[in-house]
UniProtKB/TrEMBL annotation:
InterPro entries per UniProt: Glyco_trans_2-like, Nucleotide-diphossugar_trans, TPR-like_helical_dom_sf
Database matches in CDD domains: Beta4Glucosyltransferase
Pfam families, A to Z: Glycos_transf_2
Entry protein name: Glycosyltransferase involved in cell wall biosynthesis
Highest taxon above the source species: Bacteria
Length: 361
């Protein structure tokens, strides 16, 4: 059976680090914690789990810190987590099976990253990340912010998931680092340009965000998933700037990279729905169910392929007085969101309409 070193970078994580380590301490053979300047109880808490605590002077570079943390590993494989990540009880069991069965010929293992959940506990957004890598390969982290682990070789997609469960977030940290890099005269890589645009948009600087999204897309050096995401984010910017034509054209730009994604289908469906072009809207919302996700690493928002298009199809078929179809799609939406107020109101309304129509026959 393989052995595993957990390698983490932390700073002032007293509220979450214990929760994280509780969920992983029985799964790994070594815990390495790199502290980048905590002045709270983080180290005190970590010391209950390991004495392998290392200091690293923060230099506004996440990759530098993560690469240093990987250098501390002494086991066969390296696992990385953030302090606000956890393994659920179910995923702890899956991880144990993975550890027992993983062949040493595997160079890197990806795991789902569950980012957000609805009120029913369903995962609403997720992506895949390479979490477990062979130590001897010396894979490196790249990028000062929104860093990524560059892997190659014999790759394996596992069924294990890491759950992101933050209590708080420093919303200024990343954009400040990017602005320092630009002020120092450094040129952002295409990937950093994309993520800087995301930070600008999240800070409501939509016009500047548009410029950086366009710069990223013009480079033609982006990963296809980032290109598609950039087009959707451009559409969001133009929506905020009240430019409906450019919002539409930005959505349509995604079709230059791949077949229509569920998000594109729903956005186009809504475009026609607003104009009461019901048949056109029905076409696009129906397309949202047809996409097969062959790209395992890309960001996914499950709403666009599950309850949302079904809810909208319910409204559209109701407009056309096709109540049985409206009821059918509302029931499909209800499977995902059984306690949603709008869906429950639709059910009550459609039950009554269908009952009255049957009584007239």
């Amino acid at each position: 059976m393989i052995t595993i070193s957990l390698c983490m970078i932390v700073k002032n994580e007293e509220e979450v680090i214990g929760r994280c380590l509780d969920s992983v301490c029985e799964l790994v053979d070594e815990i390495n914690i790199v502290d980048t300047g905590s002045d709270d109880r983080t180290k005190e808490i970590v010391n209950k789990y390991t004495n392998r605590i290392f200091d690293f002077q923060w230099i506004d570079d996440f990759s530098a810190a993560r690469n240093f943390s990987f250098q501390q590993a002494t086991m066969d494989y390296v696992l990385w987590l953030d302090a606000d990540d956890v393994f659920t009880a179910e995923d702890q069991e899956k991880f144990k099976l993975l550890k027992q069965s993983l062949q040493p010929t595997i160079d890197a293992v990806s795991m789902n990253y569950h980012l957000s959940f609805d009120h029913e506990g369903n995962v609403t957004s997720l992506l895949r990340r390479y979490r477990l890598v062979k130590k001897v390969n010396e894979f490196k982290w790249i990028g000062a912010v929104h860093e990524f682990l560059s892997v190659s070789g014999n790759l394996f997609d596992s069924d294990v998931a890491v759950t992101h469960s933050p209590l708080s977030h420093d919303s200024e940290r990343n954009i400040t680092i990017y602005k320092k890099l630009l002020a120092s005269g450094k040129t952002l890589s295409p990937r950093d340009t994309f993520y800087y645009a995301n930070e600008l948009m999240d800070h409501s600087d939509f016009e500047t965000a548009v410029l950086y999204y366009e710069e990223f897309l013009d480079s033609k050096l982006g990963w296809i998933e980032d290109n598609i995401r950039a087009c959707f984010r451009l559409a969001d910017c133009y929506h905020k700037l009240n430019d409906k034509n450019k919002e539409l054209s930005s959505t349509l730009r995604t079709l230059a990279y791949d077949v229509p994604r569920p998000e594109a289908c729903c956005r186009l469906g809504y475009y026609f729905m607003e104009q009461f072009k019901n048949h056109e809207a029905i076409h696009w919302y129906s397309q949202a169910f047809l996409y097969e996700n062959h790209q395992q690493i890309g960001f996914q928002n499950t709403s666009f392929s599950t309850w949302l298009p079904n809810l909208q199809l319910c409204v559209l078929y109701d407009r056309l007085k096709q109540y049985d179809k409206a009821y059918h799609h509302n029931e499909l939406a209800r499977k995902y969101k059984p306690n949603n107020d709008s869906i429950m109101k639709n059910k009550t309304y459609l039950d009554e309409v269908i009952k009255n129509n049957q009584e007239k026959i």
